[in-house]
C-alpha cells in the first residue's frame, strides 16, 4: 500500500526527498500517514481535494483485493 | 529537468522513477557532485540535469504507458496496455481478465486512475495533452450507449413536451450527453445538482 502512494506522491511533488509515509494499524485496518513539504501540500490534495480523492479511490482497489481497509491521512 | 538528491547515484535513480524509463534512455549531466558534511553540517545535494533521448511524440506516449504499467503493477493488477493513437489524442486501453474492479461504480475508479496518470505524466514532461485511459473499450462502448440514450430521451422530451432528467453521472459522461445534443435545434441540455449527484437535464428549446 505504502509503495503505491509513495510512487504517486513522489512523482507529483517538487521535493520528493521530503515525502514521508508512516503505516499504522488499528482494528479497522491500515492507516497511511502522509507528510510532504509545506509547499507540496496543495499538490497532493489538489483542487477541491481531487488528487487526494483519486489516490484514495485507487488505494481502495488494492485494499479490496487484499480484503482489508486502508485510510490515507494527509498531515 | 533538474533533479537534486543526496548523491549522484540517488539522483539518477530518482530520474529513472520520474521519467519512467531506464538509465540508457536519457542523458545525464552532473551539475553539482554534492558532498556529505560532518554531522550533517555542510551537506550539499548533488544536482543533475537529465534529458530524454527519445523524440517528444514517442516520449509522451511511452512515458504515459510506463506510468500506467507501473501503477498497475503497484496496485497488483495484471494487464497489458494497448496504445490507440488518434490524430489528437492517445488512448491507453488496459486489457486483461477480471478488470471490472478498475472501472468501479459508474466508472469512477477508472476516472481516478486516468487523472493520476495524467498528473504524473504532466509533472514529468511539463506538458499537458489529451490522454484517455480505458479498460477493454469500456469508455468507447459507454460513449456509444450514452449517445443512443441521449437521442432516445430527446425524442421523448419532444413527444411528451416535458423536461427529462438523467441519472447522476461523472463529468466526462455528462459531457458526452451535452455534446450529443449540442447541435439540435429542438432541445437543449444543462446540469443540475452538486458533486456526485450532478445530472443532465434535457428540455425543449424555447422558440
Give a description of the structure:
The complex is a heterodimer of chains A (75) and B (207). Chain A has helices spanning 2-12, 41-45, 50-65, and strands at residues 20-26, 29-35, 70-74. Chain A is an alpha+beta fold and 75 residues long. Chain A has a 3-stranded mixed β-sheet. Chain A starts with a helix and ends with a strand. In chain B, the strands form 3 sheets. A 3-stranded antiparallel β-sheet of chain B has the order 1-3-2. A 3-stranded mixed β-sheet of chain B has the order 4-5-6, sandwiched between helices. Chain B has a 3-stranded antiparallel β-sheet with strand order 7-9-8. Chain B folds into 3 domains: 2-52, no CATH class; 56-136, 2-Layer Sandwich (GMP Synthetase, Chain A, domain 3); 141-204, Ribosomal Protein S8, Chain: A, domain 1 (2-Layer Sandwich), CATH 3.30.1370.50. Chain B has 207 residues and is of the alpha+beta class. Chain B has 6 helices and 9 strands. In chain B, helix 2 crosses helix 4 (108-125). The interface between A and B is medium-sized, with 22 and 27 residues.
List SSEs of chain A in N-to-C order.
Answer: HEEHHE
Q: Which percent band covers the strand fraction of chain A? A: 25-35%
Overall geometry of chain A comes to globular
Count, helices of chain B: 6
Q: Compute the CA-based radius of gyration of chain B.
A: 23 Å
Give the termini distance of chain A in whole angstroms.
17 Å
